[in-house]
Structure formats: C-alpha cells, structure tokens
Amino acid sequence: MSSYLITGASIVGGEVADLLIDNGEIVAVGTDLAAPEGTTTVDAQGLIALPGLVDLHTHLREPGREDAETVLTGTRAAAKGGFTAVFAMANTDPVADTAGVVEQVWRLGRDAGYADVYPIGAVTVGRKGTQLAELGAMADSAARVRVFSDDGDCVWDAALMRRALEYVKAFDGVIAQHAQEPRLTQGAQMNEGALSGVLGLTGWPSVAEEAIIARDILLNAHVGSKLHICHLSTRGSVEIVRAAKRRGLEVTAEVTPHHLLLTEDLAASYNPVYKVNPPLRTKDDVEAVREGLADGTIDIVATDHAPHPVEDKDCEWSAAAFGMTGLETALSVVQHSMIDTKLLTWADVADRMSYRPASIGQISEHGRPLEAGVPANVVLYDPRVERTVVPEESVSLSRNTPFEGMTLPGKVVATFLRGTPVVLDGELTR
Amino acid sequence: MKHLLSAGDLSRDEANLILDTAEEMRSLADRPIKKLPALRGRTVVNLFFEDSTRTRISFEAAAKRLSADVINFSAKGSSVSKGESLKDTALTLQAMGADGVVCRHGSSGAPHLLAKSGWMTGSVVNAGDGTHEHPTQALLDAFTMRRHLGSLDGRRITIVGDVLHSRVARSNVLLLSTLGAEVTVVAPPTLLPVDMTSWPCATSYDLDGALAKTDAVMMLRVQRERMNDAFFPSAREYTRRYGLDRYRMAQLPDEAIVLHPGPMNRGMEISADVADSTRSVIVEQVTNGVAIRMAVLYLLLSGSNEEEQTA
Q1: Do residues A178 and A219 share a domain?
Q2: Where is the Dihydroorotase catalytic domain (chain A) (predicted)?
Q3: Which of residues 112-151 of B touch A (CB under 8 A)?
C-alpha cells in the first residue's frame, strides 16, 4: 500500500502540521516528518485536515430504487463530500429488515470501496409499525447492525416503541426515531403556519414532531436504552431535547444541512425540489437548530441525503417525492451556516460530523482524532474558495439538490479512506 | 398580465379593468348574436385534471363567444402514478400551439408550475388548484356584488364555511380586500387555517354575530365527509351553527345579497328557501361567470396578439 505525506495542513483548523500516512494508518503527525522512499507528497497549504466525516443518515436506495441511487453512486457522492462512512437507511425495497438484506448492502459498500457502508436495520417488519423485525439477527450478522430505524415512517405505536428500545439493550443498539405523529400529518405537504394556509398546501405542524420526541424521551428514560432523534427541525424540538439533557436523560439528536440553512418560504415557488420530510421550517426554527447544534443540544449533523429521479420531482407539488440530496454539499452548508457565523469552530465540526456520529453509530474505524495509530480516514478541505452549486456536476445519480444556484463556501480537495485517496485534487480518483 | 394564477397578483386597477371589461362582455349576452371575433385564430385549451363540468363549460362558452378555437382536454389522475405527467401534457399542448391554457388541477400550485416551468409559452389561467385559489370565481363573485351593491369600497362581506379547504375563499379574500371591501370569514375553528395573520380579513366563529353587519354573505360548500375527520361533529350540528336558513337570513340588512359558488348542498350550508329567495344571486353568478371568463381570456390573449403583429 502506498504512503502519503500531507504537508502543511491545519489540523482540524488548528496548528499547521504534516500527516504521514502509511499502510492505511496515520503513522505520524508533526513537522519535518521523514517520509519513506516512494511516498507521495500532497501539498495541503491553506487546507484544513478533518477526520473522515461520518453520516448517520443516508439513503442509498439500493436494493430497489437503483434509478435514484446505488450503493456505488451514493458512496461516490459521499467521498466527494468528505464522508468516509455512511449509515444506509432501511427504507429500501425489499426493506432492510432481515440479516440477508443488511448483509447485501454491507457487501455492496465493501465492493464499491469509496466509503464504508453501515446498514441501518428496520425496527419493524416492512417498516409497517406493527411487528418487531428480527433486530438480533441483524445485530449478529456480518453487517453488525447497531442502529435501527423505520425512517420515512415513525414508530408511532408507543408500546412497540417501548419494546424496541428495551429489546436493543441486549446488544447495545440504538433506535433512531423519525419523529412524526401520523394522524397529525395526514397528507401533509409543508410546514404548517401562515404560509401553508396561503399556499393551500396541507400543513405539517411542529407539534407532530415535538409530541413524539417528548414521548420517546420519556419512554427511553423509563426503560434506560438508547434513543436517537432523526432530522430534528423545530425550535420546540430543540427545547425539549435541551431540557431532557439538562435533566440527565439519555438522548441524541441530529439536524440536516438543509434545516440549518433553508426556510419554508421556498415552497412558495411550488418547486418540489424544496419538498422534504420533515419540511423546511421558519427562520426562527433555523436559528434554534443552529443554536442547538452550537451548544451541543443537537449532537450531530446528518445529511438525510435522499436522491430521487427527475420525474419524481419534475411534477406538481403534491405528487412529488419528499427529499433532497445532501452528501456533496453538507460540509459547505455547515461552513456557511455554522463556521462563517462563528457558532462553531472546525474542531466542533470534527466533533459534530465525525467523532460523535461514529460514537452514536458505534463504529471504531471512523471518527477518530487525527493522530498516530488510527485508520487514515482524512479529509482535506479548502475553506477559502467559493462555488456555485450546479446539479449536473453531482456524482450522485440524482439531481434534486435544493442548493442549486446558491454560492456556498469551501470545497473538499481530498478524501482518504484507510490511507487510499478516493478523492484527490477535488475529483474522484477512479 | 401574462397569466392569471392568483387573485392576489391583481392590482386594484387590473381587477377593475377585468370587471369593467366583463361589464361590456355581459351586455353582449343581451344581443341576438353573442359572438365577438376578438380571439379568432387563437387556441384555448381547457385542461381539466378534475371533474368540474360547470367551470369547464363556463370557460368553453367564454372562449367560443370570443371566436377562439377551444380544445377540451380532460386528464384525470395525477402524474407519475397514473398516466401522463403534467410536464408531458404541457409539452404536448405547447407542440400543438396552445395560446391559452385554462387549468383545473387537484394539486395546489399546478397552474403556477405550468406557467413558470418553461414547459410552455402560452398564458395560463388558474381555474381552481387544490385548496389554493380559484381567481375567476372570485372575479365573478366581485362582479356580481358590484352589480348589486355598487362600489365594493367599505362594503362588508362575510364568507362562511370550510375556509381551510376552500380555494374560493382564498381568492375572494384577496380580491375583495384589494377592491376595498371589509371581509370577515366565519367558520368553526377547525375549518380555518391555524395561522391567518397574513390574511387581509377578520375572522369569527359566530355567524349570528356577523350577519347584521353584512352587505353580502357568501356560503361555501361544505363536504359532509369532513365530519369523518372530526372537523365538526355532524352535518346537523354544522347546519345549526353555520347554515344559512330563512331565520338567519332575516338578520341581514334589507339590501344584502346571498351568494354561493356552487354546487350547493341544499339543507347543509344553505336552506332551499334561502337558495331560491329573492336575495339569492346564485343563478346570476353563473351568467356572470361567462362574462368574467370572456374578459380574462380577452385581456390575456388579445394583448399578445397585438405584440406579435407589431413585432
């Protein structure tokens, strides 16, 4: 395996040092490092070195919707965005609710080789919310599943949610809840508020998210398990999680890049590229999730990368699919909304986008500080450049980015997966 | 004006221009030959994704009286799941050279998408989209009121019923306030949008309290099935609290009129004796609908004709 000497990088935004990578590991961090013969030097002057990013919430669509994304194309997009590990959501077809399906996804990820793929198992059979899936079999499979989610649908039945939380204690699993009270969101199309009433689009009220989060935090406190809240989107949700953490209750939460930046006003265009679940909220909610991410109430950023083929978005709003792509723009959106606003430092970004998602997902190969002896999962990022988002430039199979035409800061220059550069000079290496 | 998508897009002058033009169009109805050559050679497509015979024939009559060629395109069902997508339909109409497309669609914003997507270049008239808007209905309502009440400036207009799901209510609130009227919407709290702060109207839950100060009352159609989603307990209770019967009608000032966009649920939101009373202008609304739609098509389509000739 080749060795690489990364020179002059700012280590997680701090001191400038060199990184020597050999045999898939970081072997030294410092200055004037002696490189073995045949080492390739990568000039990283002015670049920030971050630990490889970990996305706890990615839709890779395979098996079933290979017209939207495959494990291969999705992990290529991940690598391009600086992610070395992605957790693949279970809402595939067939649903990832058996050891067979999660092992298939896991193996596809290994074969692709652009980013490590950790399958998420469904909580209930077929994600139908009535019967527990064989969580233990998925946990014991080669895919070693620890995160379980019916994402796309809420585990709305309180008794079933309680049992799921209890059951995964046996193998230290975590239930990642898509918090959406179904009866309050029947036919929901966008955030419920003044604008939904004017546009005549059925509202998705904040309380439908907040009520489930509050319920699940209490359920989890009762049974002492691990609860993770997917794509938290409202001020009320931030306040509930903040209060719970203050009381010492166990809960972790994620926010998506799009909820950190975009607001419901975009729905006034009736352009379904802005249709997403949970919906884009208000400016006040955006401020709240930024504050929550800054003060640690929200633990991580997760993309909820949700690719869709053109025909599922190039249509009237109510017929369109929910979801937005996000892997390739996540770090730029976080720089724009959190770094350039002085709410986070780069060390915090390493925490929110690498260390902590790896810790919640219980993987040890990723999310390690950049120091000697850890797997060489490294991102080099140039925060000084600007780019305008062009959907056609995406390496994802899908084009449904809500950031089209926006100018965002920063660019991933290189991504190393266990010492192998999968992105170099801003381009995929193969 | 290139399109008519929302009543809120109309300035007061534009709205009055449409109403004044409709007045001229309406005088045509009294002549033995009801046809004008204004849109000869122009093609108007009635693109109806929802069944609505009354609105479609109203537009059809309007376009024909202006000598336009009319194509009725009934395309039930939505894109992706059933049949052809909205986009492919639009591309087809573009290829056929549609100058104007009158669009009725179950999805809020569909006419907006047709107009803004670049799929077609013709003018788009929103003939009702989902629970969003129905601007020509609001125009014909305003036209009808104006004929009975004169200027709408300062006139008190009460709209009663399922505002939450009503495209008629949305367009009327926007247009009537533009024309200077004082609008109050009355409904049970469950049938009002949760946040109406941006609506240029007052809201009330009490019909009896509003009627004495009303120059025109508009009763909206309320679907009985709404009670299955707990919007109200029963049809009888709805009628008791929000239906317009002759006892309630008696509270109205002497000159006040009663409107309904149709189709009516007689016995639900409006009693038969009110619907058939002398205060009811419901049948006249239908007549005026043709005049309004003539005015809209004329103003949208004859203008582009002149542009092409001068170009």
Answers
A1: yes
A2: 48-235
A3: 112-113, 116, 129-133
The torsion angle over the Cα atoms of residues A338, A341, A342 and A348, rounded to 10 degrees, is 10
The residue range of the domain holding A415 is 4-48+374-428
Neighboring chain B residues of A311 at a CB cutoff of 8 Å = 79-80, 85
Claim to verify: residue B293 and residue B190 sit in the same structural domain:
no
Rounded CA-CA distance B293/B139 in Å is 9
The enclosing H or E element of A428 equals: strand A427-428
| A304 assigned to active site | yes
Q: Assign residue B196 a region: left if phi > 0, alpha if psi is -120 to 50, beta otherwise?
A: alpha
**What pLDDT was estimated at residue B81?**
47
Cβ <8 Å between B106 and A315: no
Per residue in B26-52, pLDDT (tens digit) is 998 788 888 999 999 999 999 999 888
Q: For residue A185, give the CATH number of its domain.
A: 3.20.20.140
Dist CA A291 CA A294 (whole Å) = 5
What is the average per-residue pLDDT within A216-221? 98
Helix then strand count (H, E) for chain B reads 11, 9
On whether both B252 and B159 belong to a single domain, the answer is yes
Average pLDDT over residues A367-378: 98
For B95-124, how does the pLDDT look when each residue is reduced to its tens digit (9 = 90+)? 989 999 999 999 999 999 999 999 999 999
Judge whether A206 and A289 are in contact, CB under 8 Å.
no
Q: Which DSSP string corresponds to B40-104? A: TT-EEEEEESS--HHHHHHHHHHHHHTT-EEEEEE--S-TTTSSS-HHHHHHHHHHHT-SEEEEE
Give chain B's domain count. Answer: 2
* Interface touch B108/A317, C-beta < 8 Å: yes
Render pLDDT for B153-175 as a digit per residue (tens, 0 to 9).
999 999 999 999 999 999 999 99
The DSSP bridge partners found for residue B160 are B186, B219
Residue A368, domain member (yes or no)? no
What percentage of chain B reaches a pLDDT higher than 90? 84
ipTM above 0.95, yes or no: no
Q: If contacts are CB pairs under 8 Å, which of residues 175-194 in chain B contact chain A?
A: 193-194
C-alpha A258/C-alpha A264 separation (Å) is 11
Amino acid identity of residue B143, one-letter, is F
Q: What is the pLDDT of residues B251-288, one digit of tens each?
A: 999 999 999 999 999 999 999 999 999 999 999 999 99
- Residues A289 and A405 reside in one and the same domain: no
Place of tokens 């509270």: B251
The overall pTM is greater than 0.90: yes
| Same domain assignment for residues A126 and A187 | yes
B112 burial via Cβ count (<10 Å: 0-12, 13-18, 19+): buried
Per-residue pLDDT at B304 exceeds 60:
no
Comparing CA positions, the residue from A424, A334, A344 lying closest to residue A379 is: A424
Closest Cα partner for A213 from A253, A171, A186? A253
Residue A367 lies in a domain: no
Q: Is the pLDDT of residue B190 over 90?
A: yes
